[in-house]
Design a protein that fits this description.
Blueprint (H helix, E strand, L loop, with lengths): L7 E5 L3 H14 L4 E5 L7 H9 L4 E2 L4 H4 L7 H10 L2 H10 L4 E3 L4 E4 L4 H14 L3 E3 L4 E6 L5 E3 L2 E3 L2 E5 L4 E4 L1 E4 L11 H4 L4 E7 L1 E5 L11 E9 L5 E8 L3 E3 L1 H9 L1 H6 L4 E6 L6 H14 L15 H10 L13 H12 L1 E10 L5 E6 L4 E2 L4 E2 L5 E3 L13 H21 L8
Parallel strand pairs: 1-2, 1-12, 2-6, 12-23
Antiparallel strand pairs: 3-5, 4-5, 7-10, 8-9, 10-11, 13-20, 14-17, 14-19, 15-16, 15-18, 16-17, 18-19, 21-22
Helix pairs in contact: 1-6, 1-13, 2-6, 4-13, 10-12
The structure holds flavin-adenine dinucleotide.
Flavin-adenine dinucleotide binds next to helix 1, helix 2 and helix 13.
Length: 431
Amino acid sequence: MPHMSPPHILVVGAGAAGYFAAISAAETLAGSGTVTLCEATAHPLAKVRISGGGRCNVTHACFDPRELKKNYPRGARELHGAFHRFGPTDTIAWFERHGVTLKVEADGRMFPVSDDSETIVSALSKAAQSLNITLRLQSGIRKVEPAPPEGVTIGTGTINGFRIELATGEVLHADRLIVATGGLKGSGPSLAEMLGHSIEAPVPSLFTFNIDDPRLEGLAGISVEDAVARVDGSKLEQRGPLLITHWGMSGPAVLKLSAWGARELAASKYRFSLAVNFSPGHTRDDARSALIAHRSRHPRRQIGGSTPFQLPVRLWAQLVVAAGANEATSWTQVSNDVIARLADQVVDAKFPVTGKSTHKEEFVTCGGVRLGEVDFRTMESRKCAGLHFAGEVLDIDGITGGFNFQAAWTTGWLAGRSAVLSALGKADAPR
Ligand SMILES: Cc1cc2nc3c(=O)[nH]c(=O)nc-3n(C[C@H](O)[C@H](O)[C@H](O)COP(=O)(O)OP(=O)(O)OC[C@H]3O[C@@H](n4cnc5c(N)ncnc54)[C@H](O)[C@@H]3O)c2cc1C
């Protein structure tokens, strides 16, 4: 039997996922119930505000769920179906309907045309206000439990709603609960654990590598357009632009490697050997042949200023020194031994990584609520009927490029809509 009185949906966490879940719930309710959005801090949508360097990379222009899911080191399989129901096309359309036009950059990242994250914050805030969502700030939830029996039977089991205790001691009740509390910090039991869920231990994802190596000295800001970065001795490998920073290395190749290797690198305590191929088109033998041909073609040029590879010349000069050669030596004097060492420096340069740093303060959490315990058609818990999840609280994370927000919009939309439909005893119409 469905709920007889108008349902009350409570969403915990006013980030991207929580806002979208609350809005989707209120849109589905269409006035026949209430939605409360509880936020622990005084600052809703704080991450949206600072995201994308203040521009908010809302989503990615990737419209095939099969391709889109490849950008999620964790959650790809589960998100596939969810993206069919609410993907980047829906995100773009939703924001357009709410007065925000998104634009695509050359690499596929999508931002508001205003280039200002405030536009996104404002669209979400206005939508929530117009749907009469009650936003409660400084209302951290410290405890949740299923309300005592006398429940009504709906869908997955008996649901009599939830008893929700705020940090202030105040107690609220809700018929459906959506937990969108973001990446777990690992301190104290999470709301999900209180309701019977198990958690994949949280570790950081999306970070840069700290490397103190003479080859990188004075090169901060220099980037290599195309490189392969590999964790030496493992299968972890990523290709893309590589940026040299004051502390070591960053850029898409490194960030992707940090995401795909989040667990393995945490286990290594961020101390490992990074092998870089600065010229991915070349194997060690190819590189040797290219160097030998270059020696024949340019015998009188100085080795430090003349390379057959597409490399910034200052980086090349430091690789020359690392190979034990003098930059001022003319190519004709370069021995085959030096050529072999140079080839190694170009295609398999090993750098000792000694730690990690954040990339423009951007990071996400690898780990969270175990995905097998959640039904991704509805985002409902398989452990506790009436409980739904959305966003980074789940063991889902993407690489940089707007993928993390897309996961928040997708799971938020599904959670909000499904929570209401189940409370009203209605079946979800497939989209
Ligand atoms: C600096 C930075 C820049 C980023 N830029 C981008 C970008 O451009 N594009 C992109 O796709 N991704 C970006 N990301 C990642 C993206 O911000 C996150 O993946 C996304 O915000 C996750 O949304 P969420 O709603 O799940 O969690 P959050 O945004 O973390 O929101 C969770 C909310 O829940 C609240 N909360 C937690 N516990 C409780 C509780 N017990 N009671 C009540 N409230 C609670 C928190 O205070 C918070 O407001 C960025 C991340 C950072 C840190």
